[in-house]
Amino acid sequence: MTFRLLLLGCLLVNYSNSYAQQGNYKFNNFGNRSILLSGNVTGSVTDIGLTFYNPSRLTEVENTGFAFNARAYQLSSVKISNIFVDESNISSTNFSGVPSMAGGTFKLFGTRFAYSFISKNRIDNNLGYSSDILTDKILEIYPEAEAYRVSTNLRSKIKEDWFGLTWAKAINDDLSLGISLFGSTYDYNGGSNIDHTIQATDNNVAFYQNTIGFSQKSYGLFVKVGANYNFTNFDLGLNVNLPYLEVDSDGRFNYNKVISGTGEDLDQFYTYGYTNLAASRREPLGVSLGAGIPIGKGKLHLNIDYINGLSGYNRLVIPSIDIGEDDLTPVVFSEERRDVFNFGAGIEIYINDRFKSFASFTTDNNAFVKSANIFDLSSDDSREVNIGEDFIHYSIGLDLKLNFASVIFGVTYTNSNTEFINPLDLLPTGIDPNDNSIATIDYSRWQFVVGLEIPVLEKINPIKSKE
Q1: Whole-angstrom Cα distance, residue 434 to residue 161?
Q2: What's the confidence (pLDDT) of residue 339?
Q3: Mean pLDDT for the stretch of residues 450-455
Q4: What is the distance between the alpha carbons of residues 165 and 401, in angstroms, rounded to a whole number?
Q5: What predicted TM-score, i.e. pTM, was given to this entire model?
Q6: What b-and-e string marks burial along 372-394, b requiring 16 or more CB atoms within 10 Å of the CB?
Q7: From CA 187, how far away is CA 394, in angstroms rounded?
């Protein structure tokens, strides 16, 4: 049916945005200079981003006192071409804030500590579409149609916050070890609603409504263990991200379906609401290796990252439901990830005592084999659509040192182009599976970054950089 085309098209736009932040591990970076170096700082981080990238580097930097990423903004656009029908396009442009970080360092009992707050994920998409146009496609399927109206709304919202404490210890003049412990709160909810109305030439009116909603909450711990070694001509850093330790979780799911005005044999009404569902969130083991190589008064930053895959599991365990088919309809909300390697490089160029410039790039390969999406469950031939995009991120910027603070300016750019097989064809007989037609997704994002570091504690407890 036509409403399925509109629903799935909007879902593709919506979820390609939402899942980029969950299936691509370097989609967002944290710490002022770390952002401009595209996160290639495992062996060279010099800002509060060390709590995220390598906690052992806490012994290598000056006391930052307090630092935060100012409220940066991003402009992103998605365009899907040849979705279901050749030469058709669906596009979306969004201007919003980006996740940020704040924190600082202090010394207690002769040992370095840092505290940090990271707004790890911020997604809030709400897409709507409506149409009352009778097209040839609709008339081929419903030849008696005289008036037509469809409206759909897709919602996806993720809020994830990390609260962390970092400790580091210099084992000797060259070797340092550190650990970061983050408490995490994760709230993911979304859903879809579609109304489909057709009036026939005899004035009979048929109405279809399909509503799906879900939520998943998770509370747990992330642990990062880091090491740093100062060689004669460069620094080498290692960071291990341990798998997510879930402490508590909760899930909910609701489904409503109404078909009216089609006759006693076809009219339907189903409604389901489940709370306290078994829920699970998993994040895999990751290992990063990085080097900081001085070049005059500047520095070359190199990084390689490996993230382990995840075998298939259910994000939510939802009972099968009866929606008028011969058998109960399973509700699948599962996820599976592959192993991922990423690499990148950044350059830090000394201009004078007040100015440094930065430029960098990094790969960001998508990990999803299966992603937890919910589509219209009322069709036996609807099937899971997984859209994974591989990104390349680029960044440039300036570091301006003032007498009382350091100000960071920068721009990042991301783009990708992905092909996938259209899952369904719109035919006169209805919607059928498709294994041949190719659609494409073009994605781009600009981020505009301003950060501020105020070393308010440096005069009380000065700690000089070893660089």
Answers
A1: 40
A2: 97
A3: 72
A4: 27
A5: 0.82
A6: bbbbbbbbeebeebbbbbebebe
A7: 29
